[in-house]
Design a protein that fits this description.
single chain; 268 residues; alpha+beta; 2 domains; two-stranded antiparallel sheet; 8 helices; 7 strands; 13% strand
Length: 268
C-alpha cells in the first residue's frame, strides 16, 4: 500500500523542506536514486516510528517503507511524482515501476471524486463466490419446486372465522335474561321453531301453524301469550319440549322418514 500525501492524513503529516534534494539512505528500490518533485516536503508524525526511511533530507524522510502483515506500506511526501506530467523527471517512472513490479496496481482516485459502487453480487463474484451463488440459486429453485408438489392428501387450510361460540352464547343468554321475562323468551324460541318449519316445508299461514303443531305440543301460555310470567320449572319444561321439536324436525328431513318428507313436499 502506497500512501502519498501532500498534507495531513490521520496522524501522518508533511512539512516544507525548502530546495534541498533528497538522497537515498537505504539500499532498496534499485534504479531509484533521485526524485525531482515540483514541491519538496518531508514526512512527519507518529507513524514514522514503525517505518524506515529510504529517501530523505536533513529535515526528514521523503519516502519510507514498513511491514504490514504479509505486505508492506510505503509513505511518500511528494505524490506529484506519480502525475503524468512529472513521470519523465528524475527516477519517478523507475519508482512507479518498482512499486508495481510483480503485482496488480490499483489507484484510489476517490480523492478526485472518482469511485465505483459494486453491488453485493459483484463483490461476491470478485471474492470467488460465483459458483456458490449459482448453487444457491439452483437450490432455491429446487426448494420452490418441491414445495409446489403435494405429498399425501390435501389438508384443509380453512381458517376458523367464527366468534368464540360459548362466550357469545353465555353473553347473549345473560342479556336475554335481563331484558325479557321467561314467557317472552320462550315465545321467541317458539317463533324461531315455526320459522325453521317454514324454511323446511315452504308452508305459511294456517298450514304452517298446523305443521308446526305436529312437532310441538305446548300450552298457549308458554308461547308468549297472556300477561303473567312463568316459573323457572315451567320455563325449563317448555324449553325442553321445543328442543325435542327441533330434533323431530331434523329427523323428519332424513331419507328414512318417508311419511314426513312427503308431507313436507305437499304444497300449501
Amino acid at each position: 500500500m502506497v500512501i502519498a500525501i501532500s498534507g495531513p492524513y490521520a496522524s501522518l503529516g508533511t512539512d516544507w523542506k525548502g530546495e534541498e534534494d533528497s538522497r537515498k539512505v537505504f539500499p532498496a528500490w534499485p534504479g531509484v536514486e533521485k526524485l525531482d518533485p515540483p514541491h519538496r516536503r518531508v514526512l512527519t508524525g507518529a507513524p514514522l516510528d514503525d517505518v524506515h526511511a529510504i529517501l530523505a533530507t536533513e529535515k526528514g524522510p521523503v519516502a519510507a517503507r514498513g511491514r504490514m502483515g504479509k505486505g508492506e506500506v510505503v509513505l511518500l511526501a511528494v505524490p506529484e511524482v506519480f502525475q503524468n506530467g512529472h513521470l519523465r523527471k528524475g527516477d519517478h517512472l523507475a519508482l512507479l515501476a518498482t512499486l508495481a513490479a510483480g503485482r496488480k496496481a490499483y489507484f484510489d482516485e476517490s480523492v478526485h471524486g472518482l469511485s465505483g459502487e459494486a453491488g453485493a453480487v459483484e463483490i461476491l463474484r470478485q471474492w470467488g463466490f460465483g459458483p456458490l451463488l449459482v448453487v444457491a440459486v439452483l437450490a432455491s429453485g429446487v426448494a420452490w419446486w418441491r414445495r409446489r408438489v403435494r405429498l399425501g392428501p390435501e389438508e384443509d387450510d380453512a381458517r376458523e372465522t367464527r366468534v368464540e361460540a360459548v362466550d357469545f352464547v353465555d353473553s347473549l343468554a345473560m342479556l336475554y335474561d335481563r331484558a325479557l321475562m321467561r314467557r317472552q323468551a320462550l315465545g321467541l324460541y317458539v317463533r324461531a321453531f315455526e320459522q325453521a318449519v317454514a324454511v323446511r316445508t315452504g308452508l305459511k299461514g294456517p298450514a304452517l301453524q298446523a305443521k308446526a303443531g305436529e312437532f310441538l305440543k305446548i300450552r298457549a301460555d308458554l308461547k308468549g301469550e297472556g300477561g303473567r310470567d312463568i316459573g323457572a320449572l315451567e320455563f325449563q319444561r317448555g324449553l325442553g319440549e321445543i328442543n325435542q321439536a327441533f330434533r323431530r324436525l331434523d329427523d323428519a328431513k332424513r331419507p328414512g322418514n318417508r311419511r314426513t318428507n312427503e308431507g313436507a313436499r305437499r304444497p300449501a
